[in-house]
Amino acid sequence: MRLGHSSTRYAGFRISTLTLAIVASTGVLAEEPLVLEHVEVVGQAVSIDKALKEQRSSDNVESVVHADGIGQLPDDNAAEALQRIPGLSVERDQGEGRFVSVRGIGPDLNSVTINGTLVPSPESDRRAVALDVLPSELVQSLTVVKSLTPDMDANSLGGTVEVESLSAFDHDGLFYTGSAEGSYDDNTEQTSPKFSGAISDRFSLGDGIDNFGVAAALSWQERDFGSDNVETGGAWNFDNGTRLEELEQRNYAITRERTGFGLNFDYKPDDLSSYYLRTLYSRYKDTETRNAAGIEFADAQLPGESGDAEGYRELKSRTETQEVQSYVLGGERMLGLWTIGTQAGFSRSSEDSPEGIAGATFEGNDDFADAGFSNTKKPHLNIDSAFYDPNNFTLSEVEWEKQKTTDTEKNIKLDLARDYDLSGYASQVKFGGKLSRREKDNDLEAWKYEDLGDVGLSDADLNLGQFTKGSVDYGLGRFGPGISDKAIERLLGGLNRDDFYNEEESRVNDFEMSEDINAAYLMNSLDIDDWRFIAGVRYEGTEFEAKGSGIRDGVFEDTKSDTRYEHWLPGLHARYQLNPSTQLRAAWTNTVVRPTFGQLAPGFVIDGDEASFGNPELDPLESMNLDFGIEHYMGRAGVVSAFVFYKDIDSFVYNTDLGGTGIWADFAEANTFANGESAELYGLELAYSQKFDWLPAPWNGLLVGANATFSRSDAKIEGQGQSRSIDLPNQSDTVGNLMLGWEDDTLSLRLSANYKSSYLAEVAAIDDKAHDLYADEQLFVDFSAGYFLTPALQLTFQAQNLTDESYYVYSGRRDFNAQYEEYGPTYKLGLTFTHF
Description:
6 helices; Plug_dom_sf; 6% helix; Maltoporin, Chain A; mainly beta; 60% strand; tonb box; 836 residues
């Protein structure tokens, strides 16, 4: 990057996540940026250097993404910023990145921390944290640690995502920035606003100079968007040709509001001590309306055939608010050769769904004739015109629900380290402990309004024609009328809700779970010439308790489970400097992850010879991990690296049917979760990045980056006296990124592509491999540009999903739909003002 005149202060270009992430995977040291008196230049290379310094000195295999000079991550939320790091892929919801998978390990088996404290999950059945809850403006850096040292929580199989919020010591003196953005969703033709800002400054307390810092950030966005969907749920009959049993069309209309706020304090009274208070609050509110129109064929059909079918229309209308709040108080003090660190953390996540329509179903009064479909991948419904007449449908039932989930994590830890000399070599012993207390509870209240004719409502009162509000704008074919949620609410308001209370649904889904973890560790680091070694062991003792209710043939029973287990987790890390440009890394680690709360749920339903239940007695997942890699850097922002990894996983969890076996021998089905014996995952990560600043202008502004991860897995599942091998769910064999960028003092351009191959999304019955569900490969292409109108004012443009990539899930073979959903591209235009 060219330096400006000595009297000019340039705000930073928007960082290229792909380039940074590729470089970040290598952990090498870049050259120090040239600093001239009275000159402040912030650009991509400077931001990359910050990440490289952290990673080169790290004792872990890790990757870092930094906010750029104007306090912005390069993508709208933390999940999308991470997706371009080698070995990472993103699960999307309505086209937006949400959950992060690391090296093929599903999101529930990785952990997320904010400023050093664990982030609990707001969803009732998951451990995974949806990172789109965190607006990018509140994040200073993101680190993905792929090999854990003994002083870290051992609760991740793939990696730990560490989120650091902004600090006043990230900038010299007063810093503030503000942004305004408008986006356009091509699928719904809706426009949406976004505003964000950050400010920080340092102050002098006592005899110190600029030793106290305050930083704050605020972000607000309201986005109107939607998607079109057609799905079969995998309802294919493969016995006599390939015939379809049912299909459903869906239209989603969503308003998503994000609000985030962070306020942080730092105090450094001298060179030997530092203290901090980190706070973060994020609120994520979804208002969703889903219209559905579906059919069930009287006889399963081939494409092009026609016959009778039952039809229905359905509405779901709900508001869901997720909140994440985190408070971390800590400090560090050096006392001679000793360093003492303490930290106390409190985090709470919640999901609140006030009363709303979980499902309102209108059934066809008679069968519809001449019903059929074409295209097995994206089924198109062909049916008699009577299907689109609302007067041919009658309200059959309404499911009305409210739900509140709360997940709280409290922890306190102490770390002590002492530097010493071991036979002339620098060494450090470090030990400490951590107490964690986690509580998760779920409260669901449900009502089921059915047999409405028995409470005095006539067929005319329940006719769909009384509840419509115009035609649905559906891009995959003809849909017909939409359903008014307000009209349904008015109808229910005239009924006695106590008559429709669903006690079974309400009680079986309620639970209280607690997870207490006591941990301690001992580790030692040793530097011998060009070698650095870290050896140690971590102990974690866990006590888990679950309380809930079940129902057995109409009779409720209280349930309680209490389990205890201990783990000793040794680890060894080594780093060798081959030459000033090249280093080797190796790590042997052991980790343990608890099953998801949905898998551990204490509730059960037993009805005759059918049963479904969670399994609070599940063993935790254990993994032995090996990592080997080589990193070579080529000047500033030029890197090539290769890593191989291997994971041997014991007691992985899968869904199974125990019907016909053991104590369930007399049951036709008994659906639950079980531990598998072992699974293996291994792979190769390759990364390359280069800035061609030695070329003549304009080619000296060119940036190129690429990375790819190739992995394989093998797991064995059992049930009903049978067994078979599967891939690990959510594991893509190939994940890759490619970026082409260009920048000078005023203009920055980036074209990036993100690819993920197909993966196993859901396992069918043990004897029904043909109905396993797979998510198809995806290729997302994005473009971004930034232009400085003045040294402090930047105009930005982004185009996301230029390839109009869809989400496609198939049943067994790629030709047979389980779900198809498309979103369209999104375009954004914004202004950012920054003062350094």
